[in-house]
Specification:
It is a single chain. By secondary structure, this protein is of the alpha+beta class. It is built from 21 helices and 12 strands. The chain folds into 4 domains: about 1-110, no CATH class; about 155-230, Fumarase/aspartase (N-terminal domain) (Fumarase C, Chain B, domain 1), CATH 1.10.275.10; about 240-400 and about 415-485, Fumarase/aspartase (Central domain) (Fumarase C, Chain A, domain 2), CATH 1.20.200.10; about 495-555, Ribonucleotide Reductase Protein R1, domain 1, CATH 1.10.40.30. It has a 4-stranded mixed beta sheet with strand order 1-4-5-6, covered by helices on one side. Helix 6 packs across helix 10. Mean pLDDT is about 85; it is low at about 85-140.
Length: about 575
């Protein structure tokens, strides 16, 4: 099932990357079905699904969007964000694993301000309206953003997430008999057709200009829409209960997006590792030619690092997936722990076992650390490609598209611009971690010194990590590789790279290590100076006891690569 789900996820992102946001669900559904079928998987679309009610089978017309291999259900939604209550349909559909939700992929921004213009300008390359303020209130520049992160970190989505938490708490109060039964559903009905969109976000901003308090502004804006029932919103809670818990919900979704990005990068890196498994190249230490290895082993190293990055992110996600509804200083003085427990269960979160007025910021620092380390992996891969693209090396290079320009003044240039960009982004990820570490120590039960920092570094870091991972995926996928140049570089030092093998041969012949080392080094230095092949010099050295056949064996590159298959077997490759 996991492999099947991964194929569906990858197919969804291929559709998204090709079409972008703004099209009808039916379009995305058809394209997604096509992509999945390309993977030689069976897909049924609009699969009729009956409802069993009181042991009676009812043919209600309920349909599954995509049923993959009769195992995996894909519910296609072209909406800005799925709220928790929307998952119920997916759960009802699930056939064989009732404890697991099927894959969900969302991809469309609703833009009411420019609705007419969006309706008339839809195309396969539709992008979000640049003049529409419902894009986001991010600090990250658009150049390094992804569509999903833009939506996720928008002000409107923040308020929708706050609302989801508040309504979950109101419903929990209902279960305790402290709020009239049906209040939560009544509020939902009142909000139908009144989505918490950019217009709502602007109204919150107007009120906040007066109140200087975001939660107060939010609840007052809600009151304007739902009237008297708003008194049951935010009952017993403090601002940070909502802000911190909602922020963790958004971070959870952001991490989920990044994990999918990493998995896609893993696949293309693994493909390169397998393709070039036995392609010889020179290994370099200190930037100097060392000994033969394979080009595939470079990428196998990268693949292993990306697997560790994924695990670190999953651990950080679990650490941060906590909810806090414990009141002003964490004592539950005005809200019983049962409320917190019910809301956490509804949102698939864990109750933070002890808090003050905030969720402890070491949790956020752990996530930022995992993302910073991911950045170092991305930079490591990017740096290798940058080096290999140098004119005097030219073993690999970034793809160069038709019409691309390398330099405004030098027409011959093909510069590693993508990998240089990724290197720069990695620096930002590391610097944001430093700010996150500074946020851990707060005054007493809390102060707000962390707040201004997090408003920048959390959206920026997650957005940058997603963008950089996707960009590197594209680089690796379209990497141009030159095995002939690898062989040329292997041969360029006239056999010096086999010096250690010669050394061991001399020791095996009975020489002391010091004497053997002196012979090899003496001739190696002469080879450096004259350009004469090391084997030729050793053949003419009277102190060398090795026969011609023994020398030839010492200069055989296959000896260095004899355990490559064993290394790959550790990854089942």
């Amino acid at each position: 099932m996991e492999k099947l789900a991964k194929e569906a996820v990858n197919a969804a992102f291929r559709v998204h990357n090709s079409l972008g946001p703004g099209l009808l669900e039916s379009v995305y559904e058809a394209c997604l079905a096509y992509e999945i079928r390309k993977q030689e998987l069976g897909v049924q679309t609009q699969f009729a699904f009956p409802v069993i009610y009181e042991q009676v089978r009812l043919e209600t017309g309920l349909r599954i969007d995509l049923l993959v291999e009769e195992k995996l259900i894909v519910e296609v939604k072209a909406v800005e964000m799925l709220m928790p209550h929307a998952y119920s349909r997916c759960t009802a559909h699930h056939l064989s694993s009732p404890n697991k939700l099927p894959f969900r992929f969302t991809n469309k921004l609703q833009c009411e301000k420019n609705q007419a213009r969006h309706q008339t300008n839809r195309s396969v390359n539709l992008s979000l309206c640049s003049s529409c303020s419902s894009w986001l209130n991010l600090f990250m520049i658009d150049r390094y953003s992804t569509p999903e992160m833009k939506i996720l970190w928008s002000e409107a989505n923040k308020y929708r997430t706050w609302l989801g938490l508040e309504l979950a708490a109101t419903f929990a109060w209902e279960s305790l008999g402290e709020v009239p039964k049906g209040t939560t559903n009544k509020i939902r009905e009142q909000l139908k057709g009144q989505e918490l969109d950019e217009a709502f976000a602007e109204r919150v901003a107007e009120i906040e200009n007066v109140t200087k308090h975001d939660i107060v502004a939010f609840t007052r804006a809600l009151t304007e829409r739902i009237g008297d029932d708003a008194k049951y919103i935010h009952l017993g809670l403090t601002s940070t209960d909502v802000v911190d818990s909602a922020q963790n919900l958004i971070l959870r979704q952001a991490v989920d997006l990044i994990i999918v990005d990493i998995q896609k990068l893993q696949e293309v890196v693994k493909e390169k590792a397998v393709t070039y498994k036995h392609t010889p190249c020179i290994g370099r230490t200190h930037g100097i030619h060392a000994e033969p290895m394979t080009f595939g082993l470079k990428f196998l190293n990268f693949y292993a690092a990306l697997l560790r990055d994924e695990e670190r992110l999953k651990k950080a996600r679990a650490t941060l997936n906590v909810l806090m509804l414990s009141g002003s200083v964490g004592t539950y003085a005005h809200v019983p722990p049962e409320i917190e427990k019910q809301v956490a269960e509804k949102l698939n979160m864990t109750v933070d076992p002890v808090t003050n007025q905030t969720v402890a910021r070491d949790r956020h620092a752990e996530l930022l650390s995992a993302l910073a380390i991911l950045g170092t992996t991305l930079e490591r891969i990017a740096l290798e490609i940058r080096h290999l693209q140098r004119s005097e090396v030219r073993e690999a290079q970034e793809g160069f598209s038709k019409g691309q320009t390398g330099s405004s003044s030098m027409p011959h240039k093909k510069n590693p611009i993508a990998t240089e960009n990724i290197t720069g982004i990695a620096r930002l990820l590391r610097s944001n971690l430093q700010a996150g570490l500074e946020n851990v120590a707060l005054w007493h039960e809390r102060d707000i010194s962390h707040s201004s920092t997090e408003r920048v570094i959390l959206p920026d870091t997650t957005t940058l990590a997603s963008y950089a991972t996707r960009r590197l995926t594209n680089v690796v996928q379209n990497l141009m590789v030159y095995p002939e140049n690898m062989q040329k570089n292997l041969d360029s030092l006239h056999g010096l790279i086999y010096s250690q093998r010669v050394l061991h041969k001399l020791i095996d012949k009975g020489m002391m290590r010091e004497g053997a080392y002196e012979i090899v080094q003496r001739n190696s230095l002469k080879s450096w100076e004259t350009g004469t092949h090391l084997k030729t010099l050793l053949e003419g050295d009277s102190e060398n006891p090795l026969t011609p056949d023994e020398l030839s064996e010492a200069f055989n590159p296959s000896w260095y690569l004899r355990y490559v298959d064993e290394i790959y077997s550790r990854f089942n490759l």
